[in-house]
């Protein structure tokens, strides 16, 4: 990772933006008056009021939820060993595709630093989940064909290679931004009802972010069908979806609570973040449906077990 891509420079009244978020160098008191210094230095954001701080805390909670969301599924997979039949491969692939587009789109569309940090972890967690799925698929089908093992190895290598392309050291891209105060404020002398124009870079990022939201929404459908076809959610950890629901909720609230840029109205801010809000809050509703599947199929399983327990003594006698 090259230092040039990590550290932004303040020279002659111009603030440079690095690969991830706002510069933390320069005069803090002039660039972010009344702001939180630890947020400025640690996250590269200017948080001046309670609304901004609430957005920061919710964003950090969202990252925490997504960090631990995969752990229950890892445990369930190791315990049951049927991850390849419990989870839909299209669910994992579309989820990975959505997270990949989310990462690229967040960077190109100049989204909040916390959004970009979260997107990086998404991709890493998805690759680990996919690798575990391929491992159990290869393990359970080894006797049928050894080709699966080669496919798993190739997929892991390709996934690792593609992740390297997005590492910060792959190339420094800097954007010159005027040095005037750039925090997100609700009051401004400009027309707040006008929608801020998209730059060519933001248009590309917005388009990729829109593709990401579509992939997120589509990713749940194969898993919902797999659960319906099996009439069971055995092998799938409910805590995976419960934590993802909590993560998407806090993620969406974090974006909604953040103050718009100076001179940017709420309407313009919402439009610029619309794909990420749809991808977050849209999948939230589908994950709730999957939660109902857990309840329905668990109840059906308990009724079958209860019925079997009542008839067993009669048969035995």
Automatic annotation (TrEMBL):
Residue spans crossing the bilayer: 54-75, 87-107, 119-136, 148-167, 203-223, 235-256, 276-297
Leader peptide range in chain numbering: none
A matching Pfam family: PQ-loop
Topology within the bilayer: Multi-pass membrane protein
Main subcellular localisation: membrane
Gene Ontology MF term list: basic amino acid transmembrane transporter activity
Functional description taken from the UniProt entry: Amino acid transporter that specifically mediates the pH-dependent export of the cationic amino acids arginine, histidine and lysine from lysosomes.
Name assigned to this protein: Lysosomal amino acid transporter 1 homolog
Organism of origin: Notothenia coriiceps
């Amino acid at each position: 990772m090259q230092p040039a891509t990590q550290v932004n420079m303040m020279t002659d009244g111009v603030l440079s933006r690095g690969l991830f978020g706002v510069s933390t160098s320069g005069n803090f008191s002039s660039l972010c008056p009344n702001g939180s210094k630890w947020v400025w230095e640690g996250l590269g954001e200017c948080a001046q009021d309670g609304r901004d701080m609430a957005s920061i805390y919710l964003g950090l909670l969202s990252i925490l939820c997504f960090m631990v969301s995969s752990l229950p599924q890892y445990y369930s997979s190791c315990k049951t060993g049927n991850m390849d039949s419990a989870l839909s491969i299209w669910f994992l692939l579309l989820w990975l595709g959505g997270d990949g587009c989310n990462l690229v789109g967040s960077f190109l569309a100049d989204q909040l630093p916390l959004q970009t940090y979260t997107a990086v972890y998404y991709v890493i967690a998805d690759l680990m989940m996919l690798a575990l799925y391929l491992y159990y698929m290869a393990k359970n089908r080894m006797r049928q064909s050894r080709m699966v093992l080669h496919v798993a190895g190739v997929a892991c290598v390709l996934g690792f290679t593609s992740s390297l392309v997005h590492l910060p050291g792959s190339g420094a891209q800097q954007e010159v931004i005027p040095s005037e105060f750039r925090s997100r404020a609700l009051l401004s002398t400009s027309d707040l009802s006008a929608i801020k124009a998209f730059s060519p870079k933001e248009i590309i990022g917005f388009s990729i972010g829109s593709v990401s939201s579509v992939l997120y929404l589509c990713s749940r459908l194969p898993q919902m069908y797999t659960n319906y076809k099996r009439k069971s959610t055995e092998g799938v950890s409910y805590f995976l979806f419960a934590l993802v629901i909590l993560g998407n909720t806090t993620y969406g609230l974090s974006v909604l609570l953040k103050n718009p840029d100076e001179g940017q109205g709420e309407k313009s801010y919402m439009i610029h973040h619309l794909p990420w809000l749809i991808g977050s809050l849209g999948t939230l509703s589908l994950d709730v449906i999957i939660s109902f599947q857990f309840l329905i199929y668990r109840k059906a399983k308990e009724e079958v077990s209860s019925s079997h327990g009542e008839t067993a003594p009669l048969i035995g006698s």
